[in-house]
Amino acid sequence: MAQAAVVLVLLCWRRAFRPRNLLILAKGAGLTVLLNLWFLLPFLTTLFGGAWRGTETQNRDLNASLVSFGYLFRLWDEDLSTSALKIGGGLVLGALAYLGGRVRCPELVRRARQIGTPAAVLGALGVYLVGWMDWDGLYSLLGERAAAVLCNIQFPFRYLMVVSLCFAAMGGAAVLVLQGAGRRQAAALGACCLLGLAGWLGWMEAGQYAFGYYGRNRMAEGRELISGKDNSNLEYLPAQFEEAWVEDTNIHPVNGAVLLDSTRQDNTFTVTAAGSGAGDSSLELPLIAYPGYRITANDGGTLSLGATATGKVAVVLAADYSGTFTVSWAEPRSWRAAELVSLAAAAALVVYGLRRRAASRN
Fold it and tell me: Rounded to whole angstroms, what are the CA distances from 128 to 88, 154, 159, 160?
């Protein structure tokens, strides 16, 4: 998306590099960060806070993953398992509406042209990258270092993010054309229809992930990682994780620890246990050792958390330990703060928009 933003600014460089417009771009970039801080902070702290398994850092066989032009522009597909590789009915119809307006109304309103034309050029480039680009030829032409910027994307259809953004802008420009022609009711109806269609189709696709019909296992335990529900190739797991225990959901005492009782609710374990009496011992919990697990309650003595050599959460008990403790995952306070910042930014944006609308009416 950063690459797309740079290209879009360069397409409009005469206007973009004016001081007033640079300030607008800076405000937009800052607002984007604030609205997405709830995701960016956890993502960055997790990514750089530990070692993770990965399949490949670079996919050189990008030509094998090209998506056909006809499939990209299909408005409907009964097979939802691959529907995310399409542009989407709402976006395609919005882009076609803008192109139709360009043909029938060459005297498009200026604002619509400023939005729609760069978006059409960049969107077409994105479609080319997804469906027709000779990635092997590009790699040879640019060389190892330069090509890695564009080619290190795993699959060409990652550029559908850029295409989606551009086609959405073209749909908005189509609405502006209708408004400029004095057809405000038609513009409002068209906008509602495009948004409704996009939202409906988007939910049909995203809902498959939300309800776990396909995609990755939603629990932080090993179970089902090698079942039909999983398609992650295990690349988001800690580096020390081993698949040998993926079907094992039991607590295992080590070095003489005594497990007396345990209950589980989602990823929270409440355990009653005793130490070995002769030295430190431990309990291996069937939880993947992601950062963030903590002992949230304890009435029995000295405990500490660690990770096993196979990537499980381990609770280390002192020799004289005897009691009950609770292990659960707790979101860091900084993440909660980031969520509040994003919520405040969204609220401020809504209030600002309502005030501007009220001021324009007055």
Answer: 17, 17, 10, 10
- All domains of the chain, ordered by start, with CATH? 1-51+331-362 (no CATH), 58-214 (no CATH), 243-328 (2.60.40)
The pairing of beta strand 312-317 with beta strand 322-329: unpaired
pLDDT one-digit tens code per residue, 192-235: 988 888 888 777 777 665 655 544 444 444 545 555 444 455 66
pLDDT given for residue 276 in this prediction: 92
Residue with tokens 């939300």: 210
State the average pLDDT over residues 31-53.
89
Q: Do strands 252-254 and 258-265 pair parallel, antiparallel, or not at all (unpaired)?
A: unpaired
- In 34-70, which positions are buried (b, 16+ CB within 10 angstroms) versus exposed (e)? bbebbeebbeeeeeeeeeeeeeeeebeebeebbbeee
Place of tokens 């309990």: 283
230, 224 Cβ separation under 8 angstroms: yes
232 in helix, strand or coil? Answer: coil
Are the C-beta atoms of residues 66 and 130 closer than 8 Å to each other? yes
Neighbours of 146 (CB within 10 A): 12
pLDDT tens for 310-338 read: 889 999 999 999 999 999 998 899 999 99
CA gap 67, 83 in Å, rounded:
12
Give the residue-averaged pLDDT of 273-298. Answer: 92
Yes or no: say if 262 and 269 are a contact pair by the CB < 8 Å rule. yes
Exposed, middle or buried by CB within 10 Å (0-12, 13-18, 19+), for 19? exposed
> Please, what sign has the CA dihedral across residues 174, 176, 180, 186?
positive
Contact of 61 with 306, CB cutoff 8 Å = no
Residue scoring higher pLDDT (10 or 257): 257
Residue 254: helix, strand or coil by DSSP? strand
